[in-house]
Amino acid sequence: MKTQHPIKQQARHWLVLLHSGQASEQQWQEFKAWLQQDSRHQQHYREAELLWRQTTYTETVADALSVRLQARKPRYARYAWLAACMALLAVLLVPVWQVESDILQLHTEKGQIQTFRLDDGSSLTLGGDSLAQVNLSDTDRQVWLQKGDAEFDVSPDETRPFIVTVKNSHIRVLGTLFDVQQRAEQITVGVAHGRVEVSQNHQVQLLTNNQAVMLDKQGMSPVQFLPDSQFANWRQQRFNFQDSTLEDVISVLNRYSNVTLKLSHPTLASQRLTAAFRLDQLEQMLDALQLSHNIHWHKDAQGVIWLSI
Which parts of the sequence belong to the FecR N-terminal domain (predicted)? Predict the structure, then answer.
């Protein structure tokens, strides 16, 4: 018998518990922490939710569960809960390929920028070495940006909101042009035109034309003005880093550049810098880095660029 994927089992456990109406405040906090541990947790929980919505039987069971728990005495409630859980699990344990078959995997290679056309008329452009999962259903349009950068040109559809999930942040839109830049420490959401709702934890911000916000572990930044020239500048292989770690800069460049950059010593990783340049100006940027931060560079016989102090 094939062993069930542990994350999928955990996702189904949380789905049953939270839809039971019996989850405590502590369990809600544990669920929130579980979601934030790994982007795969969010992915598998949303897949379980999708299966829940697509199966009318689960709605019947959920309603029956609520009635039984309210009607029975406490000493019998656990038996009603157990019976309902068994019924729910019987539905939720349907082979996951039924959900996964509807999820479109989109990815690009290192240095590749590619536009994908979606069935709803929207388009999604991925930056170098990026990964996204897309699910278009009758009720909504879901995208999980697992890695890298993406620009979205969303076709308006008032009946089906377009929702992008990046780590623990959510972007909701009906029709607009916006982009998401994902870095190790920060996520940037920028809007060219239209209206986008960005949420993280309990913070919600509405963005419109030429506006952007940054999200990190501390929360969401104030809304900033976004010039047209800076919108999705990675598409023109132009990059703008503000007080970023050298490790983050190298990680981004390694997704777009044909050469590989490496750090010769781990202490360099936390070095912070601000820089704006085009990818074809990489060596000029490295020369400037040597002057401003005393960080030296050289290229070895294999073409790898090494940074050292």
Answer: 9-49
Q: Identify whether the C-beta of residue 183 lies closer than 8 Å to the C-beta of residue 177.
A: no
Residue 210, Ramachandran bin (φ over 0: left; ψ between -120 and 50: alpha; else beta): left
Q: Give this prediction's pTM.
A: 0.65
Three-point CA angle 243, 244, 250, nearest 5°: 150
Residue 218 has a pLDDT of 87
CA distances from 308 to 62, 258, 263 (A): 60, 20, 6
- Please state, in angstroms and rounded to a whole number, the distance separating the CA atoms of residues 236 and 213: 21
**Which are the contacts of 93, defined by CB distance < 8 A and separation ≥ 6?**
4, 12
CB 250 within 8 A of CB 282: no
At the top level of CATH, the class of 103-230 is: mainly beta
pLDDT value of residue 275: 85
The domain ranges of the chain are 6-99, 103-230, 237-308
SS3 content of the chain, % helix, strand, coil (to 5): 40, 35, 25
CB 154 within 8 A of CB 174: yes
Out of 3.55.50.30, 3.40.309.10, 3.30.360.10, 3.40.50.1100, the CATH code matching 237-308 is 3.55.50.30
- Residue 96's CB: how many other CB atoms inside 10 A? 18
Dump pLDDT digits (tens) for 1-41.
Answer: 444 568 888 888 877 776 655 667 677 778 778 887 877 88
What is the structure's pLDDT at 20? 57
Taking 50 as the threshold, does the pLDDT of residue 59 lie above it?
A: no
Do 103-230 and 237-308 share a fold? no
Section 71-88 average pLDDT: 48
Which three-class secondary structure string do you get for 151-191? Answer: EEECCCCCCCCEEEEECCEEEEEEEEEEEEEECCCCEEEEE
